[in-house]
Amino acid sequence: MTTFNRSDDLRGAKFVETDLCGARFVKADLSGAVMREVDIDGADIDAPWLSGSLRVNGVDVVPFVEAELNRRFPGRADRRAADPESLRAAWATLEHTWAATLERVAAMPPGTVDVSVDGEWSFAQTLRHLVRATDIWLRRAALQLDQPLHPIGLGHDENTPERPPYDEVLEVRAGRVAMVRDFLATVTADELAAPRKNPHAPEEPETVLSCVHVVLEEEWGHLRYATRDLDTIVAG
């Protein structure tokens, strides 16, 4: 199978009567792509940043996708809550949903937490990534701590072979969840409006509120991924 990577510039390329059956696009930029008279039966698109438009036969399907995801994951619609009380309620719902997912995993066969589906992160790695996301966007960006990162955290571009004990992952993850809860328990509207810097692009302005919103987006996004992969594992 031919593989194209970052060194291959395919911008503006045209594929005419090309057989792309079974092709896989990973971390690919397809924004603005135009498809005409294509057969996409069985196609599977996962676009975590689906915030613009996606037209299928002239119909923008983004609102339908968002509505369906909110139906499948009650509480997801509140991830952009803007005031302290609403944020506390949004986080409480998220905690409850994650707790149910952890219980589901605990009842599955041993080793399930380390199973990777189609090269994606395992459940344990997903929890480690959420530790990193909390460290970056709450501890570093919002709280401005000097040493915010826990070594167990896992970043987007990291593929470490290290596999810390799952009990340790759960312990650190629980600590970060409690940290967000405690922060939201006392935060005020004025504190949420305080300016901050984007941890990945310091020239980009943020607020404490926007940093919290990133944490919520990460939580719901990776809950969806984890649920999807757990369903795949169960289906065999």
UniProtKB/TrEMBL annotation:
SUPFAM superfamilies reported for this sequence: DinB/YfiT-like putative metalloenzymes (SSF109854), Pentapeptide repeat-like (SSF141571)
Q: Where is the signal peptide?
A: none
DinB-like domain location: 94-225
Q: What is this protein called?
A: DinB-like domain-containing protein
| Organism lineage string | Bacteria, Bacillati, Actinomycetota, Actinomycetes, Micromonosporales
